[in-house]
Structures are given as structure tokens and as C-alpha cells.
Specification:
By secondary structure, the protein is an alpha/beta fold. It has eight helices and ten strands. It is globular, with a radius of gyration of 18 Å.
Length: 233
Amino acid sequence: MLIIDSVSKDLGEFKLRDVSLAIEDSEYFIILGPTGAGKTILLETIAGIYNPDAGKITLNDRDITDVTPKDRNIGMVYQDYMLFPHLTVEENISFGLKSRRIDTDFIHNKVQESAELLNIAHLLHRHPGTLSGGEQQRTAIARALVMEPDALLLDEPLSALDVKTRENLREELARIHEATKTTIIHITHNFEEVFDLADRVAVMCKGRVVQVGTPEEIFRRPNSDFVADFVGM
């Protein structure tokens, strides 16, 4: 379980204000909110890119509040992929494993397994610049999943893709989550992603979490005028 306990962070224009969430093991948890609500800062604070000014973060009963990002066993995927352009798909996916100085055969097998899960095994020899947006995002997700993270953070992973590719990858994410049971926290503005993927949803406004519930609860029983307006009810 991932527990965010009264976490605050002030970056000037963007803030987190006393955010508390409890995300269950294997849950697909989506965060909604307008631009500037603090969604990405929350993900980056969970990942360890920022240390909170106040509050605590625990993962599987381990306090990770001040743990460095590389020691948290948390994966993060951004909307713009952030692949290494000079490395092949295989080298991109294996990058994190190689930093752990693991046996070469083990790395090869894990990369193959992750690539097959994302349907990109036939692209392992290619470089990112020769791939479509959907293929690049699959590579980024494979690179994160190959590390067997305790939690996977997705920052609007489908927003840069065309409509058809977005639909296909949305189905892929549901299948991958079912297959791996990885705890996923996913930021999006797309309500179709919420209904297709989310077990639960948090809505953020001005750095605060203002409602948490199932998609049906959020959309059918908004707890404030802000949430009702944001979800179009």
C-alpha cells in the first residue's frame, strides 16, 4: 500500500496542500484536476524528485519520504517518453537493469519478457527516432515495468498520441495492469481513461485533494460545485 500522509510542498506557482491518500496494492488509481492543480508535483514527490516540506510517504510499510528516487523502486513515465535517442529500444528498456549490475542473461530475458508484454519485441533493434508515438510510449512503459516497480506513475501517458493510438494503448494499459497487478497512479484529463481504467479517482484543485471515490461516485455524486463543474455534471 502507498500512503501519502498530510504531504505539503510549495514550489511557488504550484503547491501541494496537506494531501492525504491511501492507494491499495494492485489498484489503478487516477488523478484528475485542472492545469496547475498540483497533479504532476504530487507524482514527482511520490517518485522522490521533490522532498515534501511536510508530511510523510510510506510504501509497503516503509517510510520513503527522504529516500532517493533510485532506491524507492517506483517507476515513472511522462507524456513525452524521455527515451535515450542514441540507444536502441532494447538498450533503453535494459538501461535501469544494467545499472544494477545484474547477470547479462537475466537482463536479456527480462527485456524480452517486457517487450513481449508491450507488443514491441519486433522493435528491439530500432532507435526511438524511427518509432511512432505509440511505439515510443510502449518502450517507455516497458522500461519502467522491467524494473518490477512497487508502483508505476503515469503522467498523462496518452495525451500526446493520436485518437486511434490512444484508444489502442488505453486497452493495452488495462491488459498490462491485469497481467502484472502493478499499482498504477495515472494523471489524465480524459474521462474515457477514467471509466476504462480506474478503480478509484482523486480530484485535485489548487493543490488539495477535494474528492476521492469510484468513477461512478465522482461523476454521479460530486461533493462540491467545483467537482460537478469539472466533470461536467
